[in-house]
Amino acid sequence: QVLLVESGGGSVQAGGSLKLSCAASGLIFERYGMGWFRQAPGKEREGVSYITWTSDTTYYEDSVKGRFTISRDNAKNTVYLQMNSLNADDTAMYYCAARLLYGGRWYETSQYEYWGQGTQVTVSS
Q1: Residues ≥6 apart with Cβ < 8 Å to 84
Q2: What one-character-per-residue DSSP string does the chain give?
Q3: What's the pLDDT band for 107 if we cut at 50, 70, 90?
Q4: Which residue among 7, 31, 56, 109 is the one 20 to 30 A from 42 at the CA level?
Q5: What is the pLDDT of residues 45-96, one digit of tens each?
């Protein structure tokens, strides 16, 4: 059974930071590209960031470039999302996801085989 478990969410004031973690089990982690998505109330789930299985390539949604950093530790089966300079627009449920596919449109939810349950991030202004 594949499990992706997110942690690290919470409430923070604008300008603050949070670091999300996603611990994976039940899959060969180093074979999967890992993505972070978010979904705000009334909005579609959107891709935030993505990292390849070798960590050689990362992608970011335009609004988080320069503020968020994705990383992974294959020895710990964990992917991280460091979020700095948070603002109210970052408020959402954050999900991690895993996909075997290499290339393509990392930001499309249909590209991913496995999903976590999410962790809530709330930024107050």
Answers
A1: 17, 67, 68, 69
A2: --EEEEE--EEEETT--EEEEEEEESS-GGGSEEEEEEE-TTS--EEEEEE-TTSS-EEE-GGGTTTEEEEEETTTTEEEEEE-S--GGG-EEEEEEEE---SS-TT-GGG-SEE---EEEEEE-
A3: very high
A4: 7
A5: 999 999 999 888 999 999 999 999 999 999 999 999 999 999 999 999 999 9
> Is the CB of residue 79 less than 8 Å from the CB of residue 24?
yes
pLDDT confidence band for 40 (50 / 70 / 90):
very high
Furthest C-alpha separation in the chain: 40
Q: Which amino acid is present at 100?
A: L
Q: Cα–Cα distance between 76 and 29 in angstroms, integer?
A: 9
> Per the structure block, which two tokens stand in for 108?
């499309």
